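Practice problem. Given the sequence and the SMILES for zinc ion, write out the predicted structure.
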Amino acid sequence: MKTISLFMDVEDPINPMADDAALDFPVLFSEVGVTGCFCLTGEKCRKLAERNRCDVALAYSGHSLGLHTNAHSFHPSTMELLADVQWDEGCDAIYEVETRGFEAFVNLFERAPEFWGGGGNTWSPEVTDALKRLNIPAYVYALTQLPNHAVHKFNGVIALPQALSISESEWAHAELSERAQNRVLDAIKEIDQPWIGVFVGHPTRFRHADWWDVPYYGGRTPTLPEYTELLPVTTYEQSKLNLRTFLGRIMKEHHVVGIEEALALTWSYRQPSDEEIVYFQQITSANLRAAVNWPVHYPGMSAELIVNKTMALTDTLQVGFQP
Ligand SMILES: [Zn+2]
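Answer key:
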């Protein structure tokens, strides 16, 4: 029996149909009796409030909720904002932006986010400074990385990695979904950690044939809302049914918790070994250099200053374990 958290990202502010999908998943988790970790953008919170979707907000009340950046793929993304500025200026810039997300989140849910998750593939270390100022104890989908998906502390903030995932295209097919479920359940057995993060998709991508933010690719901002095509209802229902099956399976085998509960486990932190530091520096730098290729980002962005600012904080790194 392992301690697991299951994540979904709720981030499509454009298409009102996505609000219905955003309602369906917390309801599904609640029906099965599983606590989900849902990561919502500030912009999604503003739109749900504007469209009077109290039903959606209410459906999330029993679940673990995090802030999924202020506006995800709207430009500038986290990296676009911070790629070319020095640390102090970057800290103020990201704090100002994420405060707007934080306020929209609190306005909708009447509670603070339990965690923060980077949008798509975008991050810079000034985020950790903003999280401390906002009193958010942890970030998920960490691009900072240690061997074997270890939980760690970076610049005084807890970093929770995403070890495993199942994609929406897998959920859509009975056979692929079955294979993916087995893959994840088998892999969980192999990961020797006190806590394991598993990503299970985006409600809007279960419902639509493509990503909501395609019109924002390459640094663009469309002048009018562009909606992606809906998938057939039968596909949507099949995908949800497959996810429901997985939730039933995983809760039978493991302890599924929200982030508050995960952080309340007895954690201790130790200094990393020399090997862990080398791994951290190599893999984290590679993750950050790969992240500039997230299709939303403007072409030609350089990760080098973000890599340097991150590496400069290497001696704040601590490895989490359960004594
Ligand atoms: Zn996302």
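Check your answer against the key. The longest strand covers residues 3-10.
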